[in-house]
Design goal:
Distance between the termini of chain B: 49 Å
Number of helices of chain B: 7
CATH topology of chain A: MetI-like fold
CATH superfamily of chain A: MetI-like
Order of helices and strands of chain A: HHHHHHHHHHHH
Helix content of chain B: 25-40%
Shape of chain A: globular
Largest sheet of chain B: 6 strands, mixed
Bound molecules: adenosine-5'-triphosphate, magnesium ion
Largest sheet of chain A: none
Oligomer: heterodimer
Radius of gyration of chain A: 23 Å
Helix content of chain A: over 70%
Number of helices of chain A: 12
Chain lengths: 267, 264
């Protein structure tokens, strides 16, 4: 029994790596065989070399050399500002509209209509309003992350069992404490889902915002590389964004678990 | 250590104790669904004296839960009045606590934290709060389970926690809505004994809703028999069997039989 558990535990830990490893191996095999020309799909070893130059070399030693940390900082600031904005607006608004029919009636239709607009259609408007750079990117990220955060907070607050709130009321809990000690913890699983979805989408819209011609950032590097025909750098950019996005998700989840009992103790 | 407790001696005489809870001509009808014009509750009047254990007994759907919700302040009556120590009640409060039939513990708090929940925000220093929590955790026999989460303990234990978290607030009236209905026979018996033990120790007034005649006869000083459609009081039966009550005595069976025939 124990043995079985530990085997399946190990399997569970290895399972997520199955697809990445298989993809990498097939990529390697295809490149080695020479079936696909390198200007369409660069060889893994060239990508590795480009990545190493991009991350570790001194600036100036070849194109993009050593730019990684500057790009990472710029992009992270943009993502965090946009995401933070979405959190600050989305969570309170979501919770209130999950509990107060009047607010939900007022916001619901508009939010759902706006949600149907693809983020990319906001891009031209954002460029007119904010020009190219930080503000446009932050606007796009905030807008995109707002919807999952708001909608999940709203659903979470709406679905809180009335019996928990009644239990609080009978124990003499006032509205303010009820909100922070009962409503938010009870809605926490939904809130977390919204935050994680929002974080994921933030990175997607970051790249969109940076494709418009800003000078630094991970999205800008990808766009730059396309102009220069450096497909290896494009692949490096894609892989780095995937990695960083995953790390952000893990970090966010861990942070929430550290900060809230309800995040730690409920599935 | 027991300074916060009101101990009632063995010589309790509920019939001369002051009236705590008074229900005056209380009626309830809901909108359009189900209940029809007759309403769910019609002209309920009754009194509960301090320290009394009253069982409300009736068939499913006769409005027992509805009455309890109104008493707790979760919903208003259509007409009539509820008074606690002479003052009309209109909203929930820690002087009338409910033990719900379903699981109403906070799943993100441990047993101890659930029990301490109502004390937070009271004028009481942390040490004193912790001592009170310790005392109530041990009163309901959960000393070894203080750090467990609700999802990690059994249904019977959850009801122990539900009991402790409201008893710690020293409510004037304890409202219990079929609290043991979902438990197996043995656990239910344990919980009934626990309730009686705590009731002897702490002098709260209990309104206990049940549809189980045996349970009512075991627990009650008075049984209020409800009839259906509309829900109203059919009979108010005094049970003067000596305590502790044995389930095998002739007197016990006689009461069960006569009440069962009333319900039919
Ligand atoms: N919120 C409500 N809206 C409309 N009708 C309701 C509502 N709550 C209860 N009722 C009706 O009131 C009647 C009594 O319900 P109640 O839950 O009080 O019965 P009960 O005696 O507690 O039954 P049980 O023993 O099955 O718990 C039922 O017919 C039910 O349909
Ligand atoms: Mg009921």
């Amino acid at each position: 029994m124990n043995r079985l558990n530990s085997t399946s535990g190990r399997l569970n830990r290895l399972l997520p790596w199955f697809l990445p490893v298989v993809s990498f191996l097939s990529w390697f095999a295809v490149s080695e065989s020479g079936m696909v020309p390198t200007y369409l799909l660069p060889h893994p070893k060239d990508v590795l070399a480009a990545a190493s130059t991009y991350i570790f070399s001194e600036a100036g030693q070849g194109s993009h050399a050593g730019r990684f940390f500057e790009d990472l900082t710029a992009s992270t600031i943009r993502v965090m500002s946009g995401f933070g904005l979405a959190v600050v607006v989305g969570i309170p608004l979501g919770i209130v509209s999950g509990r107060v029919a009047l607010v939900n009636g007022m916001l619901g239709m508009t939010v759902n209509a706006l949600r149907a607009v693809p983020g990319i259609s906001w891009l031209p408007l954002a460029m007119v309003w904010f020009g190219i750079g930080l503000k446009t990117t932050v606007f796009l990220v905030a807008l995109a992350a707002f919807f999952p955060i708001y909608l999940n907070a709203e659903a979470g607050a709406r679905q809180v069992s009335p019996i928990l709130l009644q239990a609080g009321a009978m124990m003499g809990v006032n509205r303010l404490r009820g909100t922070f000690a009962i409503l938010i913890p009870a809605a926490m699983p939904h809130i977390i889902t919204g935050l994680r979805l929002g974080m994921g989408i933030s990175w997607a819209y970051l790249v969109l915002g940076e494709l418009t011609g800003v000078s630094n950032g991970l999205g800008a590097v990808i766009m730059d590389a396309r102009m220069l025909g450096r497909i290896d750098i494009i692949v490096v950019g894609i892989i780095l964004i995937a990695l960083i996005g995953r790390l952000c998700d893990l970090g966010l989840h861990q942070l929430l678990r550290l900060s809230f009992k309800s995040a730690r103790r409920m599935p | 250590m027991t300074t916060r407790l009101r101990i009632v001696g063995t010589g309790r005489k509920p019939e001369v104790a002051p009236v705590v809870l008074e229900i005056q001509r209380l009626s309830k009808r809901f909108g359009t669904h189900g209940s029809g014009d007759a309403g769910v509750l019609k002209e309920i009047s009754m009194k509960a004296r301090r320290g009394e254990m009253i069982c409300i007994l009736g068939r499913s759907g006769c409005g027992k839960s509805t009455l309890l919700k109104i008493l707790a302040g979760f919903m208003p009556p259509s007409s009539g009045l509820v008074r606690l120590n002479g003052n009309p009640v209109s909203r929930p409060g820690p002087d009338r606590c409910v033990v719900f039939q379903e699981d109403a513990l906070f799943p993100w708090l441990t047993v101890r934290e659930n029990i301490a929940f109502g004390l937070k925000g009271r004028k009481m220093d942390r040490g004193e709060q912790q001592r009170e929590v310790d005392r109530f955790v041990s009163l309901v026999g959960l000393t070894d389970y203080g750090d467990y989460l609700p999802q990690e303990i059994s249904g019977g234990m959850k009801q122990r926690v539900s009991l402790a978290r409201v008893l710690i607030l020293q409510p004037e009236v304890l409202l219990m809505d079929e609290p043991f209905a979902a438990l197996d026979a043995q656990t239910r018996e344990e919980m009934q004994n626990l309730l009686l033990y705590l009731w002897e120790k702490l002098s709260h007034t209990v309104l206990f809703v049940t549809h189980d005649v045996n349970e009512a006869v075991l627990l009650a000083d008075r049984i209020i028999l409800f009839e259906k459609e509309p829900g109203r009081i059919k009979k108010d039966i005094k049970i003067s069997l000596p305590r502790p009550r044995e389930k095998s005595t002739e007197g016990y069976f006689a009461h069960c039989r006569s009440i069962t025939s009333e319900i039919r």
